[in-house]
Amino acid sequence: MQWTPGLEHYLAVSFVLFSLGLLGVVVRRNLLVMYMCLELMLNAANLALVAFSRFRADLHGQMLVFFVITVAAAEVAVGLALLVALYRQRRTAHVEEVSLLRL
Amino acid sequence: MSLPDLLFYVFAAVALVSGALVVWNPFSRNPVNSALALVVTILSLSGLFVLLRAYFVAAVQVLVYAGAVMVLFLFVLMLLDLREEARRRVRWATVVTGLAAVGLVAGLLLRALWLSGPGEPVPAVGVEGTVRPLGRLLFSDYLLPLQVMGLMLLVAMVGVIVLSKRDLP
After folding, report:
1. Shortest alpha-carbon distance between residue A3 and chain B (Å)
2. Is B102 in Cβ contact with A26 (below 8 Å)?
3. Which ipTM score applies to this complex?
4. Which of the residue ranges B23-37, B49-63, B108-122 has the most confident prediction, judged by mean pLDDT?
């Protein structure tokens, strides 16, 4: 085993972080925590992109990270506004109580 | 082992542990603790970005994520009173199926990594993710995406204002 961190090490961290975020989205039922786990997944993808950018000596990966961060910021703003609107209507942030569209 | 190598392991460990705490905190189920753990994750990821010489992305990560996005999260958390969530029981069927699904995905990813063979050595002439080369790229190759991104932020802002009005149309 090689101890100097290479691309594989960064990718392994990114994969584990992504899996943790996915686990949170699947398991947790609080909408806010689910949003946070989405952010975790986006951050894991960013880490993979930056690692590839470094090890292939190509700056385009970092540009993509830049855009991902922008989209994530907009997504959080809209999502949290939706959440506040939902909370005003239904007094809950729990996904299992938001079942108006269920047959 | 040199200092940057050691720092990689420190930052990676902190990121993974606090990432696990976002998902599952054994001591409390208060969402505020998840948010604070997420801040720690984001800061240590920014440290990893510095190790990867993506200095500008690391700065943006701290400013936008740890600054703006997490403040927004904490603000909404304080605005809504979510104390009753802590008393909810966990359904074990959900946890088991979730763990199984995530285990499959993680196994797939790690197998792909395992099969990919040894990576290329670190290029001697690495790129430095400082402001100058990134700005050059942003305002030449990525000019149209940049404009689209600005428009998208405007749309998001207008949408948020409309959604937060007291009387929804």
Report:
1. 8
2. yes
3. 0.91
4. B49-63
